[in-house]
Design brief:
Helix content: 25-40%
Strand content: 25-35%
Number of helices: 1
Strand order of the largest sheet: 1-2-3
Number of strands: 3
Order of helices and strands: EEEH
Structural class: alpha+beta
Shape: elongated
Oligomer: single chain
Largest sheet: 3 strands, antiparallel
Length: 77
């Protein structure tokens, strides 16, 4: 893990097109701004984890439905 110290208004570049800006601090909270192309998805970690879990569950459901269709001898239209 790379650890950096930045002050309000200072930035960190990630690659050539993602800029992380320190907007300010309030107690233990740090406010960050992220400038990135629209093609780059940016999520809070807990939201990202929830999306990944939902995707896993959807894949499991799809596999279960496929198995059920095989057992019933039907095809997905």
């Amino acid at each position: 893990m790379l650890v950096l110290a930045r002050k309000k208004g200072e930035t960190i570049m990630i690659g050539d097109n993602i800029e992380l800006v320190v907007l300010g601090t309030e107690g233990d909270t740090v406010r960050l701004g992220i400038k990135a192309p629209k093609s780059v998805e940016v999520y809070r970690k807990e939201i990202y984890d929830a999306i990944q879990q939902e995707n896993k569950e959807a894949l499991q459901t799809k596999a279960m439905l496929s198995d059920l269709q095989k057992l019933l001898g039907t095809k997905n239209k």
